[in-house]
Each structure stands twice: as C-alpha cells, then as structure tokens.
C-alpha cells in the first residue's frame, strides 16, 4: 500500500494533479451543465419542443415573459439598492470620522450570514396582511391597514433581497476604498475642489470596478434567489424564473424547467459580461502603485450625528430586528400580537386540537431531529469534501503551472459562483437523476444532494485554499521533496498543518452556507433526507408560521456559532477598517 501511494504521488506531483482536478471539475461542474443543454432538445411528453413551448407558444407569456420581466426588475433594483446601501456604509466606515467604524463595518457584513428565507419570514411577521390567509402581521394587529404591495409581491421581495445582499457590495467596495491614496484627495482639496467634486471626480471613478463587481454579485444572487420570491411572491402568484423553474420540475415538466435554467444562467452571464465589458473599456483603475500612501478621512462636521444614526438604523434593521421578530413570532399565538401572550407551545407543546390544528411543538416532532442530524452531517461532509478538493486545486494552481489547463481549472472552479443555485440543482437532476451505464440513478439519494452542494461550495473552498496555500513558501515544499518526501507526505506533513487555521475557517464558512441553502436543497431533498431549511419552508408554505420561525431560529443559532468559530480561527485579526 505505501508503495502504491508513493507511485501515485510521483504520478501526480508533476502535472498529474492538474489533470486530476480537470477531471473532477468536469464531473462536478461541466457535465451537469452540458446535460441540461442537451436534454432541452429532447421531445417533450406531448411530442413538442421545450424551447418552442417556452419561447414561442401560447404559454410563453406565462412561462417566460412575465417571470423574466419580474426577475429583471428584481435583479436591477436589488443591484442598485445594494450598491447604494453598501457603498454608503463603506464610504462612511472607510473614509469618514464616523464613531464606531469597526463595529458598523462588522455589523454590515452580518446580513449575508442570515438566510434570505429568515429575513422573508421576519418581514411577513411585521408587514403581512390577511389577504392570502394565515392572519396578518404585527402592524395589522396594531390597527394599521397594510396595503397589499407592502405585504406581498415585488416590493417586499426587493427590500428583503437588498437587506440580504448589500453585505456583498459593502465588502467589495470597502476593500476598494481602503486602497485610495489620501494624497490624491488632499491635493484636490488644496486646489479648491469641493467635497462633491472630490467624491464624484476622484473617489467614485477609482472604485468603479468595485461598484460594478458589487452590483454584479448582487444581481446574480437576486435573480437566482428562490426563498424570498417563493415566500413573498407566490402567495399572490408573482412568478420569477427561479420559482417557475421549481414549479416545472415539481410537476414533472423537466425539459421546460431546464430551458428556464439555461435562460436564467444566460441572464446572469449577460449581466456579468456587461460588467466586464465596462471594466475592459477603461485603460486602468490602478490605485495600488507600491508608493507610500496614507488614508484620508473626511470630517463629517454637523452631519456626523445624523449619518451615524442612519448607519446604525440600517445595521440594526437588517440584523438585530429580524432576529427579534423571528423569536417573538415563534412564541406568540397570534401574529397580530407578537409581544403578548407568549407560549412555548410551538417549541415544546404536546399535540392539542386547541393549537395549530393539532400540531405538536417542533421539539416533539421527530422530523425536526432527523432534519437536524441530516443537516449537520450533510453540512460537515460537504464542507470537508469541498475543502479537500479546494486545497488540492489550490496546490495544483500554486505549485504546478500547466499552460491552458491551470487557467481552465481556475475558471471552472469559480463557475458555480456565477450559476443560480436552483439551475445548478436542475442540472444535477438531468445528469445524475437517471442511470449512467452500470451506475444507478442518484435521484432521491443524499449522495446527489451532497455532490451538488459540494460543487456549489467549491468557489469558497478554492479561494480560501489559494489564499492559505499561497502564503506557504514553495522553498519548504522543494526542500522536503529533495529529501525524498513524496507528494502525500508533503501534503500531510507540511501543507495541511501550516494551512490548518485558514482551512478550518474556510470549512466553517462552507458549513454555514450549506445549512442555510434553500435554492439547491428544495429541488434535491427527499422525505428520507429532510433538511432544516426545507422543513422551515414547508411549515411556512402550509401557513404554520410559528413553527417555521422556530426552525429558522435553530438554523440561525447554528450559523452564528459556526461564524463565531470561524472568526476565532482567523486569529481575531484587527478589523482593517478601523
């Protein structure tokens, strides 16, 4: 066995590892996408063409035009809102003398850790009206007439998604603002330029790549999001491409669903391509030149207090308030009175005809513990496997420079980041849902769910792995190789221990993303492999909002514990915005 490992190590220590990673990425990423494209040309059950049904039939408006229009409106509004909100907070934290910059910067990154379906449920607890049944929310209980447009449909979906994704824009823009040389700003001010002139003439042009990147990431996330439009739009029959895709798969019209998946991918790719075209049209955005630079902060003067209060209002409204609403909504018998008559029945109560149509508390529901254990095991397994593959890809990209192949590995490993989760799940059903040669169909098995989630987590794992492995000098690996240490020996005795802290943080980040995912799991889960996110969505869909909120709180607690552990493992570095 050791001799076999040694021969295998020698085989992959040259260019072999890069070739192996190409094969792995072909299985996990390329093959599913090619399969759904090919399957869309198969005749449908009525002998027609799925493309014609979606794009040129009497069903086109219902299947494609209306969902696409809704999707584009949501995507553009969310991208614009995220850049404005995230950019404002980034400017405040990085370039002004606002008090509590470090804490505001930390709070602004938290909303992305809260699953979007949790924010959607919190919105419903506050703004829901009784139009579609299930009772109204807190505002209606206080005597306010909540209009339909504020309770259901486009507006709440956009607001919830902005609250969820603005953290992405904030992170990207803040990092770019931190590199702007304060000497440029000081020189402009000394020449008499106003603050507005400095902002629009110097700062914004320099960070425009970050603005475009923040908008692109927010747009891609919004158009592919399933939870928010499903919980806030479907009750009033507002369809987006992601909800329509889910509906097609659910009623057995898979080919039409695959067409919608390809169109969804195309829309995301088109927007990202436009962003790249804008960036390529300018000669240079360089702000890091290697010369000495110092940050420059604007004195806010009389606007300091109101802008500080506005920043805290945004942070609290998107982090603390949703959590408080979820907790209250899991304890209150009536959503009209969230803060009175609290009871633990929805957590530990026995089945009673007087409560929730005979439903027992979630802690008495055996499905909860099955879902909890399945979610934890799946999250750990996916995070572990994805990070192992991520480290191997990072080693291949860092230590082996193979023309064309290295670039191909880098691009394919990042591709899942650009793909809508629900479209990715559809691709896995298309490829692995049927037998392949001697291999049985995986549809309905936890393995299919694990494979899809592993592929979806690869961008996080690879980026974490590259950042960590790149810090390890190649001289150490070369010295070990000259003493006769094989590839696996060097990987286990040198790379893994030195990169352990960073890799553990990456593992926890992947774990948090898996347990909060609904876009992939809602298509691939089965009754034999229930998951917490799907259980919460099922409760909400059936009108049991208290139970849905209680399950969501459990997910939030697990996410926060994992996020806190990741922060500790990163060494409690001082926040760079301080």
TrEMBL record:
One annotated GO biological process: transmembrane transport
Keywords: Cell inner membrane, Cell membrane, Membrane, Transmembrane, Transmembrane helix, Transport
Subcellular localization, as worded in the UniProt entry: Cell inner membrane; Cell membrane
Annotated ranges, domain ABC transmembrane type-1: 68-275, 372-566
Keyword Cell division attached: no
Highest rank taxon of the organism: Bacteria
Bilayer disposition of the protein: Multi-pass membrane protein
Pfam families xrefs: BPD_transp_1
Keyword Transmembrane helix listed: yes
Chain ranges passing through the membrane: 16-38, 72-95, 102-123, 158-178, 198-223, 257-275, 310-332, 376-397, 409-431, 443-462, 498-526, 546-569
Family: Belongs to the binding-protein-dependent transport system permease family.
Protein name: Iron ABC transporter permease
